[in-house]
Every structure is written in C-alpha cells, then in structure tokens.
Amino acid sequence: KAKGGLFPGHIYLLVGDSGSGKSWLSLTCMAEATIDPDFQDHRLIFNNPENSVKMDLERFFGRKMADKL
Question: Is 13:29 a contact under the CB 8 Å cutoff?
Fold first, then answer.
C-alpha cells in the first residue's frame, strides 16, 4: 500500500543467510505494528523455531511489543 510495505492479514516469510538481519527486520516491523492503529486488532506471531533470538525484546522494543508477541 502507499503508506507502507506490509498488508494486514498476510503472512510474510523472510529468507536469507544466518546473521543477515531477518530476525531484527521482522521484530522491528512487529514493534512498528504495535504502535500503528491499523494493526491494533491483529495478532502478531514471531515464529522462532531455532530459538536463536535471545535478545531482551522489552529492552529493545518496549513493553507493549513484548506483551503483544
């Protein structure tokens, strides 16, 4: 859409090498969605099957985002 790059209600898969920033990009997009009124009623799912993301989500992205995931 003209105001952004992700559409509500869609699933997005990021593919790339280890350490390329896929997790950081997806978490940043999710943090942005938690403050966007257009996404207020959406459920956000961060699938971390390899359990590789060890960062403190609340520290980097705030309590609202950490609670929403």
Answer: no
- Cα 62 to Cα 46, 56, 57, 69, distances in angstroms: 16, 10, 7, 12
- Global pTM reads 0.68
Report d(CA 1, CA 47) in Å as an integer.
25
The residue type found at 22 is K
Question: Rounded to the nearest 5°, which phi and psi values hold at 44?
Answer: -105, 130
- CA–CA dist 48, 5 (Å, integer): 22
Here the tokens at position 4 are: 């952004």
pLDDT digits (tens, 9 = 90+) for 25-38: 888 888 888 888 88
